[in-house]
Amino acid sequence: MEIRKLTDEISVSPQIRLEDTNELARLGFKSIISDRPDKEENDQPDADAVCIAAEGSGLEFRHIPVVASDIGERDIALFAEAMKDLPKPVLAFCRSGTRAAMLWALSQAATEGSDTVLAATKSAGYDLEQIRPRLKPQVALPDQKISSACDVLVVGAGAAGIATAASLLKRRKCLSIILVDPSDRHTYQPGWTMVGGGIFKPEDTVRAMADLIPQGVKWEKSAVAEFDPEHDNIILADGRRINYRMLVAAPGIKLNWSAIEGLEETLGRNGVTSNYRFDTAPYTWSLVQNLKGGKALFTQPPMPIKCAGAPQKAMYLSGDHWFRKGRINDISIEFHNAGPVLFGVNEYVPALMEYVRKYRVDLNFGSKLVSVDGSQKEARFTRTEADGTVVEETRGFDMIHVCPPQIAPDFVRSSPLANQAGWIEVDETSLQHKRYANVFSLGDAAGTSNAKTAAAARKQAPVVAENVLAVLDGRALPAVYDGYGSCPLTVERGKIVLAEFGYGGKLMPTFPTWVIDGTKPSSLAWYLKSEALPPIYWHGMLKGREWLVSPDLKENAA
């Protein structure tokens, strides 16, 4: 190997061989940066192979592929980020070492000075005087300054974001990934229905975010203010920008509590509750236990919402408790659904209707909650008649469970990524943005017609991971998302109607009907929900383990 030292922190060299990594470790190097695009020459080992060899020798690795004549500001920012993050000393290589030396000089000139970096490269045998004009500090407006850069930027550390980051690293460990999310904690939201039914404890559904960020992913604990896809940037709330080669947008959904007049002021007291919030789900169970008689209202807003079955899950578990306690005849249950049907996939409705009858539920379709007065224990609904007339109705209650209207986050709706409805505009099968090829989206904020569930995100994450890598490699997109989503409808304690379906309402059962018939109540499905799914979520999905969801890849995409 022809190693040329620039500083105590970095040396450069021409192309290395896979077997050179052990020698580099023996010489004291801690990290390797490859600045060569794959397939630049036929006999060149690709970056994945170098990454594996480096890891085997105890070295960290970063791939920043550039062409010498086309080194851009993002490439410089990526190199600067690598020099900031990687353990030193670093060996950077390309075909001859020149590109590596150029990237170092361009990334360090602002702090070290033009004369210093050019003297260092010249003493190593690389005369880079021709790039001196680029070494002069550029005067940038404060809101245009790039603070960091990465191969893949993931916005949102919910189920979809963390799962995608983990799936990406499972396939390619050398990726530079930044995950942006301001939250200290991560919540298992599918468990909140069970909290509201007295089955799970609230603390079982939350963990520290720092414990869940995949190893090798850099966590930027900040909020996103704006997407700037024209410049491959996002802008953080404090004005800093992060540049990316690929963007994965998984910012989740906004629970629009303020859309219902009076709700925020009374939520969590006066008999007003919701399983859609960590702090109020326990209140649901308290109300259910203490209600001896009277009227209980359950509401569902217009679609789309996350987990469309959750509003009626709360109703069924409550009804089951009152049935078991012999109170069902003393409690009047009403379900007010702004939509026209009980459930959007007809095959599951007969089983659900059996429980509607069992719990004596009064179904009110087309009934939209518009205001709540907790002190007066009154809720106001609107209903549109066939002739277009809007009728207002007021209902008294002793308990009301509210599912809030839901919209895309504000910074999504106002961004160039959004469609007319405010969701991120992606192709439904590839999950690639329709106008920005290096942008993908999944989870609740994606503009797809599937059910917005954690099960959908679990199926989407490996699809996005495969397709992101394909774009980075210049390949055709190999993976397809079929719209799969799952809604375990908890119809009573100990039994679940396991609704699994894809685009167009197509039934997509995971198990054969002799194991679990999803159209009928099942105790095995209850076991799956209560015992199996939480550890699958924490130890499988969020760790990049794609049990039963590995995507089928197109043969011609290689």
From TrEMBL:
Cofactor dependency: FAD
Domain FAD/NAD(P)-binding: start-end pairs: 151-270
Keyword Transit peptide: yes
UniProt record, GO biological process: sulfide oxidation, using sulfide:quinone oxidoreductase
Pfam families in UniProt: BLH_phosphatase, Pyr_redox_2
Keyword rRNA-binding: no
CDD domains, A to Z: PTP-bact
Keywords annotated in UniProt: FAD, Flavoprotein, Oxidoreductase, Quinone, Transit peptide
Residue ranges occupied by any Beta-lactamase hydrolase-like protein phosphatase-like domain in the UniProt entry: 3-110
Gene Ontology molecular function terms on file: FAD binding; hydrolase activity; quinone binding; sulfide:quinone oxidoreductase activity
Superkingdom per UniProt: Bacteria
Name of the protein in question: Sulfide:quinone oxidoreductase
Organism, scientific name: Shinella granuli
